[in-house]
Amino acid sequence: MKTFKPTIFLLLFLFALTAHAEKLKGYIYASDNSPIIGAQVRWENAKSGVTSNEDGYFEINGTPHKDHMLVVSYIGFTEKVTHINDFKGEQKITLSENTELGEVVVTKSVAGRISSRTELLNTEKLSAKELTRAACCNLAESFTTNPSVDVSYSDAVTGAKQIQLLGISGNYIQMLTENYPNFRGAAKLYGLDYIPGPWMESIQISKGAASVKNGYESISGQVNVEYKKPTTADPLSLNLFMSDASRVEGNADGAIKINDKLSTGIFAHYSNEKKGHDDNKDGFLDMPQKHQINLMNRWHYQTDKFISQSGIKFINDERISGQTSHTMKNDNMYDPYRITNYTNRGEIFSKNGYILNPERNESVALIVSGSYHDQKSKYASSLYNLYETNLYASLMYERDFSPMHKLSTGLSYNWDKYSETIDIPQLTMGNQPDKETVTGAYAQYTFNLNDKLSVLAGLRADHSSLYDWFVTPRLHVKYDVTPWAQVRLSAGKGYRSVFALSENSYMLASSRAINIAENLKQESGWNYGVSTTFHIPLNNEELTLSGEWFYTDFSRQVIVDMENPHAINIYNLNGKSNAHVLQVEASYPLFRGFNLLASYRWMDSRVNYDGKEMRKPLTSRYKALVTASYETPLKKWQFDFTTQFNGSGRMPTPDAENPLWNKNFKSFVVMNAQITKYFRNWSVYLGGENLTDFTQKNPIISADNPYGSDFDATMVWGPTQGRKFYVGFRYNISKL
């Protein structure tokens, strides 16, 4: 295997560069400027063609002056024939809805979740339409209807959340915003709450080893969030939300066109959830009392060859949890166990691109970003303050040598600095790094054989001020067996630097001793994957079937060991650590407006804990998901229903003499539903979460004695809150 890996990379780079056919490129839009996915694009009198992807983008081979009449069609829209004068630049084609006597003859809902059949990598896109199928108040709540991504609470008191992909926790998932790395270190604990749902244009999920363009950190996958763009967003959008738990949120965003070249977007978010709840009567708040203000301003400047996007963002987030006067009897309030977390965070970014040769897609781009994270926390008498600074820069060059060959190269720089104030009696910590500088370079080659076989081979080399040089190889292959069946293969390596305390500070909500070993190594692991997708025409609709298998194998890993009921030990892996994930999925529109999706995912994640190989605790063995969505013919009403079947799993080893929890947890079901009524420029929605009212019993161990040796709030495997209902209002002034 070691010989095979470098050999295949070498062979891929030896393809000779050739230049023959030319490609016409463009975008297909509906009349409201939304991209049309799956539109048929062909030359007049041709029997076959191509389809537009999730962005409405298409590329079709042709001969200038010979192929000049382009035919575009899509169900529910009038077929359009466009005369093509030349192949320079990108076409922008708008289709009109097919109408008769003022009524829609055929309506076809635009998909909210798109698994691209044209993308070389195994990716899926969640559009704004998908994000409105549930409350989706922030990024953490955006995956309720998604079969691939899970989001769960890290503990029962702080509100920290972790994302899971391919059976592996969020530390190994690279988080991006606008395609640059974000939410590192301490920000990963609460960062999923830092992006309001109504601000998002889309979310892209890439499984397995991702492109080397964005760095070396993606091991199990990559999640990228795209904010609304000033050039395409509506002039005004409002979203108001309120739940029966007294959670109130308000969002507003607007796009302003200053002139033909310059536009700006303004975003504002306010949320308040300060009413305390203790439904299980354990003396602790079920959820933190939270208050957040979130502001962002972004700018877009564009000429014929130059594009610049820049933005600035500020977040103030306050959380108070634990025991309060609301949860405790007066005679027990002499020394309440109280947790506070006050965070201020600032972000800035600038993305600049210059087109050198539009006919060859030759361009150069520079991305620069920075963030400052100020987090002050108290866990009863323990104090932990963190001040984190990050600077990132990426210089990229790309060129299409021909429709068959494409090259991308670049340089990158990343700097992390951590300053900590620590007063934690139960903490034993050796010398830990407080800063790291990483510089690197990459080259990525794409081979495309008649849009049937595509190969992406990437290699990057980076130098860390902590770990010296390391190399990241990645390979992706896509083969279209037929126009309706694709096979994808992937293999790649990823790395991650560990800052143990900042990434796991939620574990301070416990009386366990925390022991962090010295000389923690840089983590590294290989990820391998194979997936197949079938788009089968059936009764004038499309049945989509997919199956995928991924295997992640860590060669170096920092283990967070909770197998001692009175201690958390963090140390270097000595043995094996791997995860297998198998997922199958089917989706089909049973009848007009009604879409059904069903999926099943099996996970087996095993880690060597101090010489003994065991399944990873607090992780379900499987998850099944069924979602149903119905949109009435005139798109006045929408009904969404989701059921999650979560499998059983293993708990950390309990105390042998005084076991305070079981060795395993049982399977459970969570149901969510939402009804939306649409009007001309506004809509109202009503929904319910966890309709079966299932909650984990006693999520806080020894809650009646938080200062005792058995107290632990980190044993969370299921919902800690019961049934909730909410209502919301959306209003927008559409772009002309």
Kindly describe this structure.
- GO terms for molecular function: siderophore uptake transmembrane transporter activity.
- It comes from Dysgonomonas macrotermitis.
- Residues 123-221 form the TonB-dependent receptor plug domain.
- Keywords: Cell outer membrane, Membrane, Receptor, Signal, TonB box, Transmembrane, Transmembrane beta strand, Transport.
- By secondary structure, the chain is mainly beta.
- It has 2 domains: 23-104, Immunoglobulin-like; 113-733, Maltoporin, Chain A (Beta Barrel), CATH 2.40.170.
- 3% of the residues lie in helices and 55% in strands.
- A hairpin with a 6-residue loop joins strand 2 (40-43) and strand 3.
- Mean pLDDT is 89; it is low at 1-20 and 99-108.
Indicate the structural class. mainly beta
Count of alpha/pi helices: 4
Overall mean confidence score, pLDDT:
89
CATH homologous superfamily label of the largest domain: TonB-dependent receptor, beta-barrel domain
Share of helix, binned: under 10%
Quickly count the domains: 2
CATH architecture classification of the largest domain: Beta Barrel
CATH topology of the largest domain: Maltoporin, Chain A
The low-pLDDT segments are: 1-20, 99-108
Rg is 26 Å
Q: What is the top-level CATH class of the largest domain? A: Mainly Beta
Strand segment tally = 47
Tell me the major beta sheet: 22 strands, antiparallel, barrel
Write down the overall geometry: globular
**How much of the sequence is in beta strands?**
over 45%
Distance between the termini: 57 Å
